[in-house]
Amino acid sequence: MAVLCAAIYLEWRRWPVNLENMDDGDVLQALGDLSEGSVNIYLWHVSGFRAWLAEHSLTLLDVTKSVIRTYCEKMKKNRHWSASTINTALAALTRFFDGLIESGLMDENPSRGALGDKRARRSFSRAPKRLPVILFEDEERRFLEVTQVLGLDVPLPFQTLRARQIARLLYFTGLREHEAIQLRVTDLHLDSDAPALRVIGKGNREREVPLGPIIQQEMLLFLEAREAFLRVQKRCAGLPALVFCDAMGGAFSRGGVYYIVSTIFAELGLVKRNKGPHVLRHTFATRQFRAGVPAAVVKTWLGHSTLAVTLSVYEHVAEASGSARPV
């Protein structure tokens, strides 16, 4: 068995034989595990860079820091790329070349430090700093009123209940939209003394997010309504038990969640720079910091890879400390 595993590993390390014959599958293998959102963006950047190299009669083995810098300068000048787009392109290329090094196809990563000098950082790397877009206290109150699911005189149609509940789950847990739509019934632990949900986020990292009493009660009742709805449909037997599914048992799209949240914001008359689900994630994080939850705990609940990532976004509200239960 060990010999077989070693043979498979060595075969992987020889992939692909010719760098110039790489297809999208090879590029994806070099990029490794990425979130659904990142994989398409990174693949687009790597493919664009390889096409630019071909136009200039260059190969991947010809790439140096100078070539990377020239590419970024051309993209900034000719395609009007912003600092943020340049940084994303560099992140994609860095991960791609790291994958080639790990597979034994290259010896060093030319994108690391390519824009590391002072002049380059000033030109490319400093995207304008903006505070995260959140709901303010009065807006939060109105959001909770317009999405109310408990204590109503008339029961909601299931489609309306489902839309409100997914928005409220994002608000009360800080989940990313793709994490919410991939959530399965078995990921919810609602009957324990410490109710929580488990989710797999970016980088294939699994985490546990505690649930407060309000969202716990709402989710218990939602699952009952969900079962009744699907029982009537009779078309989803045998499919994975997604928490937020359509009549066929299929998952929502990320665009569908964006539409739900942006429609609620429009109903509230909110004028924001961003109007999507991430506003609810930022609102959740900000609320925890203002309640005194330690930064390391918030980092875990949000699923950030490092505490530095959390503090880089929420440093303006991260000084408080206190009890560590969501509010």
UniProtKB/TrEMBL annotation:
The keyword Hydrolase does not apply. The keyword DNA-binding applies. One of its GO terms (molecular function) is DNA binding. Residues 130-327 form the Tyr recombinase domain. Keywords: DNA integration, DNA recombination, DNA-binding. It comes from the Bacteria. GO terms for biological process: DNA integration; DNA recombination. It holds the Pfam family Phage_integrase. Residues 22-101 form the Core-binding (CB) domain. Belongs to the 'phage' integrase family. This is Integrase.
